[in-house]
Every structure is written in C-alpha cells, then in structure tokens.
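Sharing a chain and its predicted structure for anyone who wants a worked example. Both blocks are below, sequence first, tokens second.
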Amino acid sequence: MVITADNRIRDSRTPDKKGTGLLKVFIKKAMGTRLLLFAMLLLLSVGLPFGVSEAFDGKHPRIGLTPLDENYQMQVSPSDRCPVCGMRVIQYPKFNCAIQLKDTGTYYFCSTGCLIRSWMHPEIYLGLARELLERPMVREYFSGRQMDARETIFVYGSDVIGPMGPALVPVLDERHLKVFKRRHGGKIQVRLLDLNDARWYEMTGRNMAE
C-alpha cells in the first residue's frame, strides 16, 4: 500500500467526519474572504498602494505644494505625489522633475517617463488642455542642473534604472551623450520635441497613453 498524506489522515485514530471536514473548509474560505475585505477597506482608509489616492483630489491630480521659483528651480515638498504613479516625488532626488503651468502652478513627477507621458498627453494624465502647459523641467544627468527638458537629449536603453524601471536619461548635448553611452550604454537617443506616440512605442514597447 502506498502511503500518502490522504492515507495517513484515513489511518489516524480520529474518525473521518465528513460533515466536520466540510464545515472547516467553509470556515476557512469565509475567514479568507473576510480578511480580504478587511485588507481592501484598510487600503482605502489609509491610501491606495504607492499613494495613488493622495495624488488625486477626486477629479484631477493634486498640484505641487510649492511652484517653481523665479529661476525655474523645483521646490519639491514631502507631500508632493507623482500624478501618473502616485509615488512620493521627494524620495527620488536624482530623477524627479516637473511641469510648470502657465499660471505658475507646478506638477512634480518621480521620473522623466511620467513627465513625458504627461507632457504628451496632459488631457489624460493631468486633466488639462495642452495649451495650459508652460515648461517641462528635468535634472541633467551629469551635473544635476535643472533645465528645460526641451533643451536636453534623452537616452533610453542604458543601464540606468529609475523609479519606474529603465530610465529616460536627460543629458546636456552631443558631447555628454557620447560620454554617457560609453559609460552606461544606450540604444536610443531622442529630443522631447521629436517624440510622439509611435516613437515612444518603438522605444519602450508600451503605449504612451495607457
């Protein structure tokens, strides 16, 4: 006779009471469902994963607490959340970036990927018309200098990993691009003004507006 877990249960001195066994299974399932519902309610009460609930006011993403200063420098606050993914922007000082609106209000982002998607499709990610956007600000990779993203070259496919995965890294010019690719690799380089949905998909394999 082959001894299995089922055999051991049958050979035990305790009689096999089917009704009791079924009741135990039912209780376990019921408890599992209750725990799942409790976990969902807890998440809703304290904020969804990655703080998505804190990034929105119900209709639109929450704008940054403090706008860019007079020199267009970022003023990231601990409460600022990325409008796209909901992560705390201040936790990523090497990658965070911003979009300033024409009324000087500022949205802060965890990374350039989230910024670019919002710049290209503000109606989806910010709930705003494109003409309300003023300038996108990023941190140049080597110097950390905050500058207009339209003046940089973005490199994709390097070994640099950002908050959302493989990073779109902004570098200053062609000379910096050569140095960066020598150190970190990079499959594609593109300027923000040359980006569109088709190019984004070619680079990342994902739709920009998803």
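Comments welcome. The chain has six helices and nine strands.
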